[in-house]
Amino acid sequence: MKVLFVLTSHDQLGNTGEKTGFWIEEFAAPYYTFSDSGAQVVLASPAGGQPPIDPKSALPDFQTDSTRRFDNDEELQAKLSTTIKLAEVSADDFDAIFYPGGHGPLWDLTNDQHSISLIEAFATQGKPVSAVCHAPSVLLNAKSVSGEPFINGRAVTGFTNTEEAAVALTDVVPFLLEDALVEKGGKYSKGEDWGPYCVKDDLLITGQNPASSQAVAEAVLSLLK
């Protein structure tokens, strides 16, 4: 099993002057879920190299067993600092693709042509496509073979409008993910704010928030096995 993780390269939180990036829990929990099951995980990002980590995701309130394991995992930290460029990646070489969230993907991966082409290729090849929290934004501009929006008519979830309001970023993000998924024809559903919620539609698997990240990885693993 070989799984491609695609991380954001975007580190600016709109015009706030604050930093963003990917959310540690949404990377670490799925990474260990896959690697502990024997999968080889390859890390990529638009710019290559070290992807930015959202500094808020390192705060004490957001620590889990997986983030603490990451903090002590020098080998994984070194691997993370040398992500390969998305442009150099082919879907042919992998069995599944996974996108960790954080606010970063809203700005770069949503419109990244290499990412969009990868998603379309994985789907065409009948391989799982998965994303958690804000990362389902990467699906918005992908198309199906027929030219329709990839998520049109598909069950999806992602960070909710009320969760965005709770972190006071409704007016900072370039768009509200819940609304954008609906506008593209997605059959959007959600669980309680901050609770684990994972949606599976054939080979498309999405999770609502950080608490959903491990469930998404486990759902992908079940397909691969």
What do these coordinates show?
By secondary structure, the chain is an alpha/beta fold. It has a single domain (2-224), classed as Rossmann fold, CATH 3.40.50. The protein is 30% helix and 15% strand. It contains 8 helices and 9 strands. The strands form 2 sheets. Strands 3-2-1-4-5-9-8 form a 7-stranded mixed beta sheet. A two-stranded parallel sheet has the order 6-7.
What features would you highlight for this structure?
225 residues; Rossmann fold; 7-stranded mixed sheet; 30% helix; globular
Give the helix/strand class. Answer: alpha/beta
Percent range for helical residues? Answer: 25-40%
The radius of gyration computed from the alpha-carbon positions, rounded to a whole number of angstroms, is 16 Å
Count of discrete domains: 1
Summarize the structure.
This protein is of the alpha/beta class. It contains eight helices and nine strands.
Describe the secondary structure blueprint for this structure:
Blueprint lengths: L1 E5 L17 H12 L4 E6 L19 H7 L2 H7 L3 E2 L10 E4 L4 H4 L5 H12 L4 E4 L22 E2 L4 H6 L10 H7 L3 E2 L9 E4 L2 E4 L5 H12 L1
Parallel strand pairs: 1-2, 1-4, 2-3, 4-5, 5-9, 6-7
Antiparallel strand pairs: 8-9
